[in-house]
Amino acid sequence: MPAQAQSVRPVGRSSRDWTLADQVYDRLITLIADGTFPEHSKLPTETSLSEQFGVSRPVLRQALKRLREEGLILSRQGSGSYVQRRPDSEQLDFAPVGSIADIQRTFEFRRTIECAAASLSASRATAEQIDRIAAALAQHAGLPDDGSEQAAVDLSDEQFHTAIFAGCENHYFLAARTSLQPQIAASMTLSRGLAQGDVQIVHRQVLAEHEAILAAIRDRDADAAAVAMCRHLDAERGRMFEGLPAGV
User: Fold this and answer.
1) Contact 125, 169 (CB under 8 A)
2) Could you give the CA distance from residue 233 to residue 231 in angstroms, rounded to a whole number?
3) Distance between CA atoms of residues 176 and 40, nearest Å
4) What are the HTH gntR-type domain coordinates in residue numbering (predicted)?
5) CA-CA distance, 217 to 191, in Å (whole number)?
6) Which of 1, 7, 26, 2 is nearest to 248 (CA)?
7) Where are the domains of the chain?
8) Which residues pair with 129 in a beta bridge?
């Protein structure tokens, strides 16, 4: 049986709230949604799934029971379990951050959407919208760099990124960023203990990266804005995960 991935409990949830069965359910529903397990297909055996997910069969059965109750699968005695339908959109909402791997996936998604958002904002943002981006950056710059007002720093960071999305003039981008905000906040909280480097140095690095993004947007340079945002997110990810064991 493969070793289980290192797990970090989601912020604000106890181990009773977020169980191994929840994690297996989340992985199964994703595999059904993306077509790995198509509608009307037979799921692998319980033994096979248990080995694939690195959990016991009782844990797997809890996840399967939930899928049955939601009408996603049908179990036939002596035959196995079959996919009845794909999950509804409500069931595919962004899942809670539950592990270091989830933080990495959040960064992967953010890099895709936020670099594009910075590019669009450079092309489309109004002068007023650019002023809002600048105001969020100015607020961040005016806060202590010693971590004593971290909540205010996090808020100004969120306002900066949200203002960039507003400048896209595309409500789908802003809706996606808003929907992902709980996961981003949880990732920031979980990863703060992983972050490498002096707090004051990191504060100044983030400000410099934000300044580069704003400068490109002000210059109406879409390519430079995308590059600056990608560099910022790559640097942020590096500050969090540098020094962690390979494969974590």
Assistant:
1) yes
2) 6
3) 31
4) 18-86
5) 28
6) 7
7) 20-83, 100-242
8) none
Residue closest to 161 by CA, chosen among 174, 149, 150, 145: 174
Predicted pLDDT of residue 113: 94
Asked if pLDDT for residue 149 goes beyond 90, the answer is no
Average pLDDT over residues 140-156: 87
**Which residue type, as a one-letter code, is found at position 235?**
A
Q: Evaluate the CA torsion angle 187, 192, 194, 197 in order and state its sign.
A: positive
| Domain boundaries 20-83, corresponding CATH code | 1.10.10.10
CB 123 within 8 A of CB 170: no
Amino acid letter, 149: E
Phi then psi for residue 75, to 5 deg, are -105, 130
In CATH terms, are 20-83 and 100-242 the same topology?
A: no
Q: Write out the H or E segment, with its range, that includes residue 202.
A: helix 199-218
216 vs 229: CA distance, rounded Å: 10
Q: Count other C-beta atoms under 10 Å from residue 17's C-beta.
A: 11
| Beta bridge pairs of residue 76 | 80
For domain 100-242, give the CATH superfamily.
GntR ligand-binding domain-like (1.20.120.530)
Residue 140 vs residue 35, higher pLDDT: 140
The one-letter amino acid code at 13 reads: R
Tokens of 103: 């933080």
- Helix axis angle for 46-53 and 57-69, nearest 10°, is 110
In the predicted model, what is the mean pLDDT of the chain?
Answer: 81
